[in-house]
Amino acid sequence: MSNYELALNIPLFSISDLLGSCLITMCLAIVLYGITVAQTCIYCASEANDRFWIKATVAAVWMLENAHTVLMIRAIYYYFVSAFGDYLGVLKIDWSVGYVILTEICIVLLVEGFYLRRIWRLSNKNVFVVGSLTVLLIARSGIYAAAGGLLIVGQDWVTFQASRTNNLVVDISAALAAAVDGLVAAAMVYYLRRSRTGAKRTDGFIRWLMAYSVNSGVILVFFSTAVAVTHVYLGHSLVFAGVTTMTSKLYANTFLGTLNGRNFMRHTPKIAPSTMYLTSVDPVLDYSTGSSSGSQPSRFDKETIQEVPITNIENSAREQLPVHYSPCHADQEW
Predict the structure, then answer these.
(1) Across the chain, which distance is largest between two alpha carbons, in Å?
(2) CB-based contacts of 171: which residues, under 8 Å, 6+ apart?
(3) What is the pLDDT of residues 3-30, one digit of tens each?
(4) CB-count exposure of residue 285 (10 Å: 0-12, 13-18, 19+)
(5) Which positions ≥6 away from 184 have C-beta within 8 Å?
């Protein structure tokens, strides 16, 4: 579409209507990126004993987040610096927008793949459940990739928004994203609930994982739904694109939060071991008072008091947990 034809098809709305909300959501996404960097540093400092594939996944997510943020900044620079004062230039689709979507797909595949592996282990390798979720994830990623490709080859936002096919692709991808996020969280909670062992400390860890899965799932479903809603009802604005960038950061943060939460739960017992002890006392009678061996002792020999930290008791109890619950039996798997 030429600049003249584009000018004839421009609806009457201001630059602030088109880009204002998108800029705010992108700024919030950059704030979430800062949290991602902080969580990555915490992980590197505290989870040195994790398996190699977990460390590799964290490194890949972190590098993709860096690339995702750089592409976001490139898009912001184009629309608010390079195209400043050029109304027709602002309406054009910059090449970086499509690659932002493609980078997010890679992050989603890594994070959701990590969660699906959890469900695979918790469900005792239930092929139907994990296979169904995998098919939905692949379908969601494929349609999302199609949306990114349409943005890369697209010339301007007016043409893109006027195309029924483009709108359908964006809406279906957002709906599938919400469905996958909700089903993965539901499956995680269901199988975690079935994995309770009866041990108080282990069940406390399971309850934390269940609560975290529910909260993160609700947040991701909300933002995926928000992408579809804003695209349908705020078609004159690019706020849906900004919400999409926030969704990517939320995936990375929920993933890293899960890994870092293991270390917090592992080293935060309900009773501090440095202050509370179980004592084994051997009473020694004070025969100077004339008390018989069957009477109550009048004093205790301090040298016979043995202090046993609570953590020693917990370690012994952990060894007796059912072996079938491997995710909590071996923390590095989580």
Answers:
(1) 114
(2) 228, 231, 232
(3) 444 444 445 456 777 788 888 999 999 9
(4) middle
(5) 112, 115, 116, 119, 133, 217
Cβ contacts of residue 133 below 8 Å, gap of 6+? Answer: 116, 119, 180, 183, 184, 187
Global model pTM greater than 0.70: yes
Output the six-digit token pair for 9.
Answer: 């098809």
pLDDT at position 236 is 77
Q: Please choose, from the candidates 153, 146, 160, the residue with its C-alpha nearest in 3D space to the C-alpha of residue 231.
A: 160
**Neighbouring residues of 6: CB distance < 8 A, sequence distance ≥ 6:** 88, 91, 156, 158
| 173 token code pair | 């991808």
Name which of 71, 247, 87 is nearest 173 in CA terms: 247
Determine the Cα–Cα distance for residues 173 and 241; give it in Å rounded to an integer.
13
Q: Are 227 and 174 in contact (CB under 8 A)?
A: yes
Cα-flanking dihedrals φ and ψ of residue 236, to 5°? Answer: -80, 0
CA distances from 288 to 184, 214, 292, 329 (A): 72, 66, 10, 53
Q: What is the pLDDT of residue 316?
A: 41
- Mind giving me the DSSP string for 159-222? HHHH-HHHHHHHHHHHHHHHHHHHHHHHHHHHHHHHT--S-HHHHHHHHHHHHHHHHHHHHHHH
Amino acid at 39: Q
Average pLDDT of the chain is 77
Q: How far is CA 281 from the centre of its chain?
A: 49
Residue 332 has pLDDT above 60, yes or no: no
Q: Kindly report, residue by residue over 70-118, the tens digit of the pLDDT.
A: 999 999 999 888 887 777 788 888 899 999 999 999 999 999 999 999 9
